[in-house]
């Protein structure tokens, strides 16, 4: 994966063909989608052409780039198929596909007998005068390995971003031999020589992320409205273009960079193998109508990508905090999440200003909405959690205090916990403002972990095994505006139990610093979840 430093540089406008064209979206700066026909593909980062090395005709030959010479091994027939396009080598008649139909970053792109597989199907997204070539199976982009500009460098798939090594110019076959003048990746000070994007060791000061529109989205309440980290609030993709997506590849391309963008999800988008999809800054991801669904994967609001892993290890750490760009200003709204292979929504690695609103969460392999590893200023509101297990975690682990203390400020309000099990939320080290939620859960409402603070008010507890579960020394203020009936609290009915066994509150946590109105505890479920009235309105 290209470094997030470059993904967060001046990203080109994305225009997703297919569903986007059908939606009527246009952009004057975007390249027109090439029609089916014969083309030479010129890499924008190197000026070299995509070829089958040695004009080989066998299956399994990994594609490479080389000086453009018009040979048939550099000619590709673009053919429309269901779900996108095929790239067929003119000299062999074989298709460009991802080795072993993998969805992983860094996997070879090779020629292979055409089978119609989705790993041989590609979709084009405009990037200025060029196009990204996105695999329909994994949502990853055709890329030069290590972003090389050398002749003979191999071709692979990698996560989509604004790097020029992932952009291609489609030159009609038979045209004059393309020139070898590459397009430089945007930098603060252009130079005559193309800038080579760093791939291993970033500079001490990360590239500035586009900030998006200032202020807050309409209807937003809580910590996501609070100024901090150079932002005045959370506005998502406000001010950017609006696009509609209906496939994983289109969605992955639309959320990959940091350009402000409103991404409308139409119908059900099913994962293609990857557990989590990275979401860049300045995005509003919102479902169309009442049935927009994310199935089999989740959203990772996280600036720690594979390139950061290469120099910093698997996990972001306090020592690396100022060496990579943090994801910010994201709104996720009006979506139903089903069968997520990991978390449904994961906010981590110092991401901030995130609003998760009016979504419906069903059972996932792990959490539904987890906020951890130094993330901050998040609001989770008007969501419905249907029979979820580990619904919401705040704080990664008992041993992660060095990274989490002073961060993890989250507001949870007007959510409907509908037969869910635990973690509404479970809090370590952070500050949770929990108000006006409707609670009908199988196990516990609030988990009191290590070093946390919770201010809870106006919650309606219809039923639970216990209101609090004690995992540590978290402090809790439980105001008189909360409603519960001990007859519906299982542990309260156990002989010999004290109230502190099922509701431990010391009253030592102050109210949050922002303006809000908690109202009274809701005696009926709020208008929560995807498809609720007005949920598909762009805030």
Automatic annotation (TrEMBL):
GO terms for molecular function: pectate lyase activity. Gene3D superfamilies: 2.80.10.50, Single-stranded right-handed beta-helix, Pectin lyase-like. SUPFAM superfamilies: Pectin lyase-like, Ricin B-like lectins. PROSITE patterns: RICIN_B_LECTIN, TAT. This is Pectate lyase. GO terms for cellular component: extracellular region. It comes from the Bacteria. GO terms for biological process: polysaccharide catabolic process. Belongs to the polysaccharide lyase 1 family. Residues 36-171 form the Ricin B lectin domain. The keyword Lyase applies. It is found in: Secreted. Residues 238-467 form the Pectate lyase domain. Its main location: secreted. Transmembrane segments: none annotated. Residues 176-201 have a biased composition (Low complexity). Residues 1-30 form the signal peptide. Residues 173-201, 515-539 are annotated as: Disordered.
């Amino acid at each position: 994966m290209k470094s997030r430093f470059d993904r967060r540089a001046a990203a080109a406008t994305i225009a997703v063909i297919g569903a986007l064209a059908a939606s009527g979206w246009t952009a004057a700066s975007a390249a027109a989608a090439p029609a089916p026909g014969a083309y030479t593909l010129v890499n924008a980062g190197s000026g070299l052409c995509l070829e089958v090395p040695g004009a080989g005709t066998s299956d399994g030959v990994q594609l490479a780039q080389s000086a453009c010479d018009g040979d048939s091994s550099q000619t590709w027939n673009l053919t429309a198929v269901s779900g996108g396009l095929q790239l067929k080598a003119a000299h062999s008649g074989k298709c460009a596909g991802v080795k072993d139909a993998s969805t992983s970053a860094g996997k070879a792109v090779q020629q292979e007998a055409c089978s119609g597989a989705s790993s041989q199907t590609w979709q084009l997204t405009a990037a200025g005068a060029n196009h990204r070539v996105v695999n329909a199976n994994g949502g990853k982009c055709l890329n030069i390995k290590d972003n090389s500009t050398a002749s003979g460098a191999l071709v692979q798939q990698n996560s989509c971003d604004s790097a020029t090594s992932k952009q291609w110019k489609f030159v009609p076959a038979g045209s004059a031999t393309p020139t070898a003048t590459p397009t430089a990746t945007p930098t603060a000070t252009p130079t005559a020589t193309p800038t080579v994007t760093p791939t291993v060791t970033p500079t001490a000061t990360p590239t500035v992320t586009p900030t998006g529109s200032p202020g807050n989205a309409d209807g937003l309440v809580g910590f996501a409205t609070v100024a901090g980290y150079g932002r005045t609030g959370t506005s998502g993709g406000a001010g950017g273009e609006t696009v509609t997506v209906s496939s994983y590849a289109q969605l992955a391309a639309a959320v990959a960079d940091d350009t402000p963008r409103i991404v409308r999800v139409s119908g059900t988008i099913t994962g293609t193998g990857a557990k989590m999809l990275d979401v860049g800054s300045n995005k509003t991801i919102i479902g169309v109508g009442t049935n927009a669904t994310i199935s089999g994967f989740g959203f990772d609001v996280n600036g720690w990508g594979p390139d950061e892993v290469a120099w910093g290890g698997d996990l972001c750490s306090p020592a690396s905090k100022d060496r990579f760009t943090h994801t910010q200003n994201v709104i996720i709204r009006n979506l139903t999440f089903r069968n997520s292979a990991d978390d449904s929504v994961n906010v981590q690695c110092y991401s901030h200003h995130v609003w998760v609103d009016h979504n419906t969460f069903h059972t996932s392999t792990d959490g539904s909405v987890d906020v951890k590893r130094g993330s901050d200023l998040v609001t989770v509101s008007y969501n419905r959690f249907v029979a979820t297990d580990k619904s919401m975690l705040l704080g990664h682990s008992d041993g992660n205090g060095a990274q989490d203390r002073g961060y993890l400020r989250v507001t949870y309000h007007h959510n409907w916990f509908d037969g869910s099990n635990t973690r509404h939320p479970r809090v370590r080290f952070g500050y949770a403002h929990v108000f006006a939620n409707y609670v009908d859960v199988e196990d516990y409402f609030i988990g009191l972990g290590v070093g946390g603070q919770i201010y809870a008010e106006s919650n309606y507890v219809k039923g639970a095994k216990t209101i609090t579960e004690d995992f540590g020394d978290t402090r809790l203020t439980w105001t008189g505006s909360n409603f519960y009936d001990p007859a519906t609290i299982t542990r309260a009915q156990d002989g010999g139990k004290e109230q502190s066994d099922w509701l431990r509150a010391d009253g030592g946590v102050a109210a949050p610093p922002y303006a809000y109105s908690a109202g009274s505890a809701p005696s009926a479920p709020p208008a929560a979840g995807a498809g609720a009235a007005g949920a598909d309105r762009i805030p």
